[in-house]
Design goal:
heterodimer; A: alpha/beta; Rossmann fold; six-stranded mixed beta sheet; 9 helices; B: mainly alpha; globular
């Protein structure tokens, strides 16, 4: 479904993503993990068309990011880190705008928005401006934004950051529910969360691919030591 | 067709957002106050039923009002981080630029609309020649659109709205005052050549009521270069 091939990105002299290659299969929930500054967000931004790769490519289905950016954008729903949303818009207006841009047909629009409001529990805030919302609600508006128009692939950059434990559980529930039909890539710093939700885990460190486990492989590995320890070993070289 | 649809949605959002914040009301009031005062303070002394003075004042007024209208178009999005959302939605740079540009032009047209009352009011005071008035408004829209394109370019350069305003204003003022400046430094023959680059020169031609394709071409070239430049800057930022 998504194939990262020797993806490299430089910001000036700084290498943010260094020759990363891996593949995400259709219907998979992939946990994309790594310490802060490892290159996760940069990778997402290249995949979603916000940044351009220095070299290497990403293939989504039969498209590649250099020649078919618009087609790929149509396939992907993206929640950027900290969910930036137009702060002066009403939640309903915002979702309506995203639905229009994503080409949701007029006769399905209202029911689609309602469905997403139910799924993300946004019903009480539909007529508030984004400014007035708490962080948790804002994050959920971002998730609804990503789900708008039923894209086949979801890319969620730390969807649970800054949420309280209940909201984290709710968000995880949403991801699991929608993950049954969709391909999802998401990142988190809560390792237990990744362990519980993902079919596969990819860890990057300093821009390089450091590990790639299926959930079965991980279950096997975590018999002798905790995932936290494994993660620390990989990303800090602690033995 | 699909692309037009997207431009329309971006246009609608941009245009509405002017009126959500107080910016629209403040800018429109300031514009009407300044141009109204400058125009009517000498209007009755001239004892002429004409809008000529109004159109003479317009380029200078536009040169600092329009950058204030356009400064937020990209800068605010880059500052708030919504730029990332905009760029990752299934739209092209062209859709984004055209949507934002047209929203600014529509806003300028709306800002200009109340001044039509001046024309109606003056036509009661004496015989008003409508030719230059119609020409003047067509010219005003072209000039406004060209300045909007320049302001959009300035906004695409920086995430700081104040900087965007100053850059936009500097370019618009230069386009307006070009010939007046050069008169001091250059021989007449050269000024004639350079005046083709001056927005004021072309605007005055149209405001006389003579619509010449060269003047129209000038304004469309300014728009094209500014919008194309914005596209290049967006590309460069990736």
């Amino acid at each position: 479904m998504i194939k990262f091939e020797n993806l490299t990105k430089y910001y000036g002299d700084v290498c943010a993503v260094d020759n990363v290659s891996f593949e995400v299969k259709k219907g998979e929930i992939l946990g994309f993990l790594g310490p802060n500054g490892a290159g996760k967000t940069t990778t997402y931004r290249i995949l979603t068309g916000y940044l351009q790769a220095t070299s290497g490519t990403i293939k989504v289905k039969d498209y590649n990011i250099h020649d078919h950016q618009l087609e790929i954008k149509k396939l992907i729903g993206y929640l950027p880190e900290s969910a930036p949303v137009y702060h002066d818009m009403l939640v309903y207006d915002y979702l309506n705008y995203v639905a229009d841009i994503r080409g949701v047909p007029a006769d399905e629009k209202l029911s689609h928005i309602k469905g997403l409001a139910d799924l993300c529990s946004l019903n009480e805030v539909m007529h508030k401006t984004v400014d007035e919302l708490s962080k948790g609600y804002r994050q959920r508006v971002g998730i609804a934004h990503a789900l708008m128009g039923d894209p086949e692939i979801l890319v969620l950059d730390e969807p649970t950051v800054g949420l309280d434990p209940n909201q984290i559980a709710d968000t995880r529930e949403i991801i699991k529910r929608i993950g049954k039909e969709k391909t999802i890539i998401f990142s988190t710093h809560i390792l237990s969360e990744a362990e519980a939700t993902c079919d596969r885990l990819v860890i990057i460190n300093n821009g390089k691919l450091a590990a790639d486990y299926t959930s079965d492989e991980l279950t096997e590995l975590t018999k002798s030591e905790s995932f936290e320890d494994i993660f620390r070993k990989i990303t800090k070289g602690v033995h | 067709m699909k692309s037009l649809e997207k431009i329309k949605h971006i246009f609608k959002r941009e245009f509405k957002s002017y009126f959500i914040s107080p910016i629209a009301y403040i800018v429109i009031s300031i514009f009407l106050l300044i141009i109204g005062w400058l125009f009517f303070s000498t209007f009755f002394l001239n004892r002429q039923a004409s809008l000529t003075r109004f159109f003479v004042l317009l380029p200078m007024t536009f040169a600092f009002i329009i950058p204030a209208v356009t400064m937020r178009l990209f800068s605010e999005e880059m500052n708030m981080g919504t730029y990332e959302i905009l760029l990752t939605l299934p739209v092209t740079f062209r859709d984004i630029i055209m949507g934002k540009f047209l929203a600014a032009v529509a806003f300028v047209a709306l800002m200009l609309a109340p001044t039509l009352f001046y024309a109606i009011f003056i036509s009661f005071l004496g015989t008003l020649d409508w030719g230059p008035v119609i020409g003047g408004y067509i010219g005003a829209l072209l000039l406004g659109a060209a300045f909007c394109a320049v302001g959009l370019l300035a906004s695409a350069i920086t995430r700081n709205q104040v900087v965007a305003f100053i850059i936009g204003m500097t370019i618009c003022f230069s386009l307006t005052l070009l010939t007046d400046f050069l008169l001091f430094f250059l021989p007449d023959a050269l000024v004639k050549t350079f005046q083709y680059f001056s927005a004021n020169f072309h605007f005055r031609n149209i405001a006389k009521g003579v619509i010449d394709s060269r003047d129209i071409l000038y304004f469309f070239s300014v728009m094209f270069f500014a919008l194309y430049g914005s596209n290049l800057i967006m590309q460069e930022k990736k």
